């Protein structure tokens, strides 16, 4: 989990860049509340505007000394609600809601009191771990593993001795077209596939020792097992055929005796 946190810390920094905007991530269909960072609305006649992408005024709040501010809605009325006097609630967030939301306060001059870079994301799809190739000797086990989602796939190779394992090509990380992270790495002698974004994550894990053990049967052992199965099937078929033949013969004999 530590590796997951560190990776997303770097990703969030790249997403935020050098901007003073506060990043906010919300799952599709959920609500989110943005506040004005304690901006004062007690001065009679002061105005607080909530804007979308610096231009569209969503809500204008006219402050009334000692009373709740007067609320005037403008753009995208169905998606917004004012709660706790000045906080902006975005309802049932959709991908189109993503963008910059800012609150400005105007009294003698206009000041930006809060800015948020809101990003709406879908939960990530499940990730699947598949073992593509295993090669065993008496001293080591080499394996190739693939991590796949609905839209992306990455692979990596591992080599394990009696006491330790290593990832031959190092941790593999890919940013998918959906801007999710797909990772494959080694942790505590386990191969881990991780698919994540800012609001959700899924993983699939397999112990390296178990993978190598399950794929350690020699061709002779496999052939022996197959031969046993074939023999059992043939014997069952023979018994069934004999039973059917005996039943038919018995019915015919009874018919002949009754006719005689």
Automatic annotation (TrEMBL):
Entry GO terms, CC: membrane
UniProt keyword annotations, A-Z: Glycoprotein, Membrane, Signal, Transmembrane, Transmembrane helix
Signal peptide: 1-20
Organism listed in the record: Oryzias javanicus
Database matches in InterPro entries: CD2/SLAM_rcpt, Ig-like_dom_sf, Ig-like_fold
Lineage top rank: taxon: Eukaryota
Broad class of where this protein is predominantly found: membrane
Cellular location(s): Membrane
Segments passing through the bilayer: 226-249
Protein name: Immunoglobulin subtype domain-containing protein
